[in-house]
């Protein structure tokens, strides 16, 4: 957009059938800001495999990011806890986490992997109905 333009509408596509989403965060108690926040969107195929998956993460690094290694690991897999756990463990691949008085880098990375697994499981449950 140019500096003098105004955004007047946004179109958000309706997810296909057998889709589910979830957002979970571990909030810093004083501010409410996320030490880690994970958004997951999943669409299941007819045979209960993951047809589409998207995972976005915030609060961990200097900028929000996609957990693309997790997405690749889960794509086409059965929508089971056995498939989700190792995929979620890859959510922090290649990420340099922030460290501050609220959480060490290692703790933020651990929280991210745990919350990614939980968000994916919840999204899958919602997609299954």
Defining key terms:
single chain; 129 residues; alpha+beta; 4-stranded antiparallel sheet; 3 helices; globular
What's the quick description here?
The protein is an alpha+beta fold. It has helices at about 70-75, 80-90, 105-129; strands at about 20-25, 35-45, 50-60, 65. It is about 30% helix and about 25% strand.
Description:
By secondary structure, the chain is α+β, with helices and mostly antiparallel strands. Helix content is 30%, strand content 24%. It has three helices and four strands. The chain has helices at 68-74, 81-88, 105-128, and strands at 19-27, 34-44, 50-58, 65-66. It has a four-stranded antiparallel sheet with strand order 1-2-3-4, with helices on one face. A hairpin with a 6-residue loop joins strand 3 (50-58) and strand 4. Helix 1 (68-74) runs antiparallel to helix 2. The longest helix is centred in the C-terminal third of the chain and has 24 residues, at 105-128. It is globular.
Strand order, sheet with most strands: 1-2-3-4
Backbone shape: globular
DSSP summary: helix tally: 3
Rg computed from alpha carbons, rounded to a whole number of angstroms? 16 Å
Report the helical percentage: 25-40%
Chain-averaged pLDDT:
95
How much of the residues is beta strand, in percent? 15-25%
Number of DSSP E strands: 4
Distance between the termini: 39 Å
- Kindly name the structural category: alpha+beta
Task: Spell out the helices and strands N to C.
Answer: EEEEHHH
Oligomer: single chain
Instruction: Detail the poorly predicted runs.
Output: none
Largest sheet: 4 strands, antiparallel
């Amino acid at each position: 957009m140019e500096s003098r333009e105004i955004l007047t509408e946004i179109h958000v596509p309706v997810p296909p059938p057998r889709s589910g989403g979830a957002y979970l965060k571990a909030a810093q108690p004083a501010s409410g800001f996320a030490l880690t926040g994970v958004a997951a969107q999943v669409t299941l195929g007819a045979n209960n495999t993951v047809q589409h998956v998207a995972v976005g993460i915030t609060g961990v690094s200097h900028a929000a990011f996609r957990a693309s290694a997790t997405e690749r690991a889960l794509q086409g897999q059965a929508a089971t806890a056995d498939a989700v756990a190792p995929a979620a463990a890859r959510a922090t691949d290649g990420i340099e986490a922030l460290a501050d008085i609220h959480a060490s880098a290692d703790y933020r990375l651990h929280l991210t992997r745990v919350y990614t697994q939980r968000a994916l499981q919840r999204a899958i449950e919602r997609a299954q109905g």
